[in-house]
Amino acid sequence: MMNIVQMGLGPIGQQLTRYLAEREGISIVGGIDPDPNKIGNDLGEHAGLQKIGVEIAPDLDSVALLDKADVAVITTLSSLKKVSPQIIEAAGHGLDIVSTCEELSHPWQTQPEVAKRIDEHCRKQAVSCLGTGVNPGFLMDYLPSVLTSVCQKIDKVKVERIQDAEPRRKPFRDKIGIGLTEAEFKAKRDSIRHVGVEESVRMIADAMNWQLSDVEETLELVKADRDLKNDRIDVDKGQVSGVKQVGRGYRDGKEVITLVFKAAAGVTHSHDTINISGTPTFTSTIDGGINGDIATSAITVNAICSVREAGAGLKTMLDIQVPAYFDEASP
C-alpha cells in the first residue's frame, strides 16, 4: 500500500482526492489545508465522497498518520518561491513529492537558486521531487519532446494549445481574466497569465540538448466577439474572454521553438497541435484538445509510482519513467 498526504484541497485537490481514492494500492492518510472552514472536516466528504476517516489538518505536523506517509501531493500554488517551503518541509519528513506547481516543472534556468536548494535538500533526505501537470508537464513540453524521438534532424518545434475555457474550473477562468474590461485587464496584467510557458520552452530545449540564446514571452488579451452568458460565465461582447500567450526560444537569433497558448471562452475549435519541422516533418493534432482539469489530476496520480522509483533529487518529466496509467500501485 502506498500512503499519500495531500497538501492543498482546492478544486484540483478535491478532484485528486477522488482520483486517488479509486486507485487500488493507494491510501490517503492525510489532507492539509489552512482554510479554517475546511479544518476538521472529513477529507472524503470535502471531495464529494463518503467519509474516509481522514480529518483535514491545518499543517503537516498535525497529520495523525504522518509517520505512515510515503508521498506528499502538493496542489497549492503556481509560484515556486511560495511553494518551496512546503516542498522543503515535506522532504524533511522523508516524503517523495509530486506537485502541480507550474514553475517547478523545469526551474533550472528560470529559478536556478531555488531549484538548487530544493535539489540539494531532497538529495540529503533521499527523496524525489517532481513538478507536473497537463501544461506545463505534458502537452506543450513532454509530449513534443517525445515526438522528436522519430526524427533524424529537428529544425523547429511549434505547439499550439487552443482551448475553450468555459468548461474549466473557476480559478482557471479568473486567472485568464474572463469577464474583465480592457482597463481592468491592464490593471491586473501582472497577475493574469498562464504560468509555465518559459518552463515548457526550456524543457523542450533541454530534451534535445539545445542551448538557447534567448527566450521571450508575449501576452495579449482576447476580446469576446459576442455575448457569452450562461450559468458559468457572464461576458459582454467586447469584454475579455481570455488570453493568447506565445513563448519563443531562439538559437543564435533564429526562432526554433514556438509555443502558442490560447485559452478563451467561446473558442469553437479546441485542439492541441504539435508541428515538428525536420526529417521527417509532421504534424500531430488532438482534435478537441485535452481537458486540462482532468488531465492535470490524472497525470499527478499516474506520476506517483514513477517518482517513487526516480532516485533522490529534483526531477523533471524528462528524468522519470513514463508516468503511464496503472490499475494498482506497487507497494
TrEMBL record:
Entry keywords, A to Z: NADP, Oxidoreductase
Record CDD domains: nat-AmDH_N_like
MF GO annotations: 4-hydroxy-tetrahydrodipicolinate reductase
Gene Ontology biological process terms in this record: lysine biosynthetic process via diaminopimelate
2,4-diaminopentanoate dehydrogenase C-terminal domain location: 138-324
All copies of domain Dihydrodipicolinate reductase N-terminal, residue ranges: 2-74
InterPro entries on file: DAP_DH_C, DapB_N, NAD(P)-bd_dom_sf
SUPFAM superfamilies referenced in this protein's UniProt entry, alphabetically: NAD(P)-binding Rossmann-fold domains (SSF51735)
Coiled coil: none
Domain of life: Bacteria
Any Pfam family the entry gives: DapB_N
Name this polypeptide is given: Dihydrodipicolinate reductase
Organism encoding this protein: Fodinibius halophilus
